[in-house]
């Protein structure tokens, strides 16, 4: 059995909020009743002339370092959001024991996820963005932050027939 | 400009916790210093004899309904987690205005994400799981919950070379 050392969650916007808590059988739900205006930010995308719901980059980092550094991972996700021109709504990171981090950043333009396997220097990321946010700009950020020896990127145009 | 009506976030485990708050320039970070024991749950996977970091199903729902019903979406994500035999660590849903929902469920076995476009009956989901959790079992749950006329599923074996 492994102890989870760190559970970190943050909202991307500093909101004056009216939090309402409701106990469920499994977990507490925090509902923020009010939030500042936000756009869904042109919730389709065009890539090479193809209209789709969003551009989804499947990114694999190999021979990477810093994959157990939760502060580095959080900073890097935030930097990716900024570089892509996206809007962060919520970020949550979970630090496993003995090692490994899972994290998601919910964006107005969809999401970024990361799962790391530090023991083998591998991380799996998904960069899913619609509108004008550009996930390509995250790649050099990731390569540099984690000193990745090899980066594989595959692109999916989600919802082309939507 | 669209108003976000609902921001919902929940931890999958009811934790007695020691929360530490740190202000950042952009957002507050809530850190839970202690958590109950959890496994990374055999953080690799084997699919058709191929060892990989995890099985990632790319799921597109077309001609679907209920895609603006945040309660239905939350219930369905939780049901997917149960059906797959996965462990929910954190769930966050964001309801856009005038419509559309984005959500992520962070699992001990990776994550489930959903982004909906109710106006065109389309939803994009990712079911990424490692260990013994089986994302295939989510497909009939999704098909039924959202009355999808058409479901496309593509499978990626992430980190085969990890």
Q: Mean pLDDT of chain A, as a whole number?
A: 79
For the largest interface, the chains and their residue counts are: A-B, 72 and 70 residues
Measured by DSSP, the beta-strand proportion of chain A falls in 35-45%
Largest sheet of chain A: 7 strands, antiparallel
Helix percent of chain A reads 10-25%
Q: Supply the number of helical segments of chain A.
A: 2
Q: Based on CA inertia axes, which overall geometry of chain A fits?
A: globular
Report the structural category of chain A.
mainly beta
Count every beta strand of chain A, where a strand is a DSSP E run of 2 or more residues: 11
**SSE order of chain A, as H and E?**
EEEEEEHEEEEHE
Quaternary: homodimer
Query: Roughly how many Å apart are the termini of chain A?
Result: 44 Å
Cα-atom radius of gyration of chain A: 17 Å
General description of the model:
2 copies of one chain form a homodimer. The first copy, chain A, is mainly beta and 162 residues long. In chain A, 14% of the residues lie in helices and 44% in strands. Chain A has 2 helices and 11 strands; from the N terminus they run E-E-E-E-E-E-H-E-E-E-E-H-E. Chain A has a 7-stranded antiparallel beta sheet with strand order 1-7-8-9-10-6-11, covered by helices on one side. In chain A, strands 2-3 form a two-stranded antiparallel sheet. A two-stranded antiparallel ribbon of chain A has the order 4-5. The longest helix of chain A is centred in the middle third of the chain and has 15 residues. The interface between A and B is large, with 72 and 70 residues. Strand 3 of chain A pairs antiparallel with strand 1 of chain B.
């Amino acid at each position: 059995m492994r102890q989870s050392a760190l559970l970190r969650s943050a909202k991307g916007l500093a909101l004056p909020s009216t939090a309402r808590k409701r106990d469920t059988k499994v977990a507490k739900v925090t509902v923020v009743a009010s939030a500042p205006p936000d756009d869904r930010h042109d919730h389709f995308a065009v890539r090479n002339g193809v209209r789709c719901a969003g551009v989804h980059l499947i990114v694999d980092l190999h021979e990477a370092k810093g994959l157990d550094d939760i502060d580095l991972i959080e900073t890097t996700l935030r930097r990716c959001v900024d570089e892509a021109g996206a809007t962060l709504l919520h970020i949550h990171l979970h630090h496993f024991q003995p090692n490994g981090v899972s994290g998601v950043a919910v964006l107005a333009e969809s999401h970024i996820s990361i799962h790391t396997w530090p023991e083998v220097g591998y991380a799996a990321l998904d960069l899913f963005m619609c509108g004008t946010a550009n996930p390509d700009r995250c790649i050099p950020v990731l390569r540099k932050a984690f000193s990745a020896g090899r980066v594989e990127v595959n692109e999916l145009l989600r919802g082309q027939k939507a």
